[in-house]
């Protein structure tokens, strides 16, 4: 799943490519991907890209025009298996709905453009045409961005206070902190040397500070690693940068212990026992804390 660093990489790429270009076509290949109807998606045709920004894990492509629909935003969330495929010269082939992973195609006046694609059978990719990004329910519910310069350690502490919820789940909750998903929550907790099962409310002042610093440093480094890379290279860059996530059975780069996994219904977490749990193995069951 694309998370903050990869989404920021896509945003930076789009901001450099789409700004100043007229949108000449918007083709919806999967009607399920479109979550809005007013303004119609066709209203983007004839508008000009003016910039791109990230809102949590949402991409916001802003446009302008001289007509009544000035200020329309194309907002999309790539969900678990979505991606953006950029073309310097958009293919001329006709998209066949249901026969391709392409969900939406956007073409620009210079012949370039991009497809939003989604692999697999579980379709969660979502696109919105809105006048105000806050009209997107997922954006309206977002918590603070952890890399916002105004987001302080004390604000972070207030978000954790009283939450008798495992810290892994708190970091992934977009209504609490925006932009972090399964992969980077694993990486942050490894950097902080903290168990994913630790309760947020149980953390002392020192642990909160250590977690805050690990979160900011991990995400800052990942965003820097994604910066300047084209969409086709972002996934591999993410995988190369992981210390524990997706590395089950490999050696922890810090201590050399074996990276372990805990499996759930539709995902897993990875951690290092030596670095994070005092050598104890986490039980592979949702309701268990630690193996006795």
UniProtKB/TrEMBL annotation:
Superkingdom per UniProt: Bacteria
UniProt keywords, alphabetically: DNA damage, DNA repair, DNA-binding, Endonuclease, Glycosidase, Hydrolase, Lyase, Metal-binding, Multifunctional enzyme, Nuclease, Zinc, Zinc-finger
Reactions that this protein is recorded to catalyse: Hydrolysis of DNA containing ring-opened 7-methylguanine residues, releasing 2,6-diamino-4-hydroxy-5-(N-methyl)formamidopyrimidine
Chain ranges passing through the membrane: none
Domain FPG-type: 243-277
The Formamidopyrimidine-DNA glycosylase catalytic domain, residue ranges: 2-109
Cofactor dependence: Zn(2+)
GO terms of biological process kind: base-excision repair
InterPro entries per the UniProt record, alphabetical: FPG_cat, FPG_N, H2TH_FPG, Ribosomal_uS13-like_H2TH, Znf_DNA_glyclase/AP_lyase, Znf_FPG/IleRS
PROSITE patterns, alphabetized: FPG_CAT, ZF_FPG_2
Statement: the UniProt record of this protein carries the keyword Chloroplast: no
A Pfam family per the record: H2TH
GO MF annotation: an example: damaged DNA binding
Family note: Belongs to the FPG family.
Entry protein name: Endonuclease VIII
The organism's taxonomic lineage, starting at the top: Bacteria, Bacillati, Actinomycetota, Actinomycetes, Micrococcales
């Amino acid at each position: 799943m694309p998370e903050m660093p990869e989404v920021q990489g896509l945003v930076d790429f789009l901001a450099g490519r789409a700004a100043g270009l007229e949108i000449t076509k918007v083709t919806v290949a999967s009607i399920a991907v479109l979550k809005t109807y007013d303004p119609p998606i066709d209203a983007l045709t004839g508008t000009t890209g003016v910039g791109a920004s990230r809102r949590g894990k949402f991409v916001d492509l802003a446009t302008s025009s001289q007509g009544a629909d000035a200020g329309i935003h194309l907002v999309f969330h790539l969900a678990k298996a979505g991606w953006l495929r950029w073309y310097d010269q958009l293919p001329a082939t006709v998209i066949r709905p249901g026969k391709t992973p392409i969900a939406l195609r956007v073409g620009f006046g210079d012949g370039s453009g991009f497809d939003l694609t989604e692999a697999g059978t579980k379709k969660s990719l979502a696109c919105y045409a809105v006048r105000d990004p806050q009209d997107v329910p997922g954006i309206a519910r977002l918590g603070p961005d952890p890399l916002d310069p105004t987001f302080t350690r004390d604000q972070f502490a207030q978000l954790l206070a009283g939450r008798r919820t495992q810290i892994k789940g708190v970091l992934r909750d977009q209504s609490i902190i925006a932009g972090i998903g399964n992969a980077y929550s694993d990486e942050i907790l490894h950097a902080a040397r903290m168990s994913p099962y630790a309760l947020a409310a149980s953390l002392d002042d020192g642990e909160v500070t250590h977690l805050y610093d690990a979160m900011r440093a991990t995400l800052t480094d990942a965003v820097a690693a994604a910066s300047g890379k084209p969409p086709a290279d972002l996934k591999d860059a993410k995988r190369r940068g992981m210390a524990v996530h997706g590395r089950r059975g490999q050696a922890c780069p810090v201590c050399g212990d074996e990276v372990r996994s805990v499996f759930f219904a539709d995902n897993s977490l990875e951690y290092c026992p030596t670095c994070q749990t005092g050598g104890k193995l986490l039980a592979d069951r949702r309701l268990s804390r630690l193996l006795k």
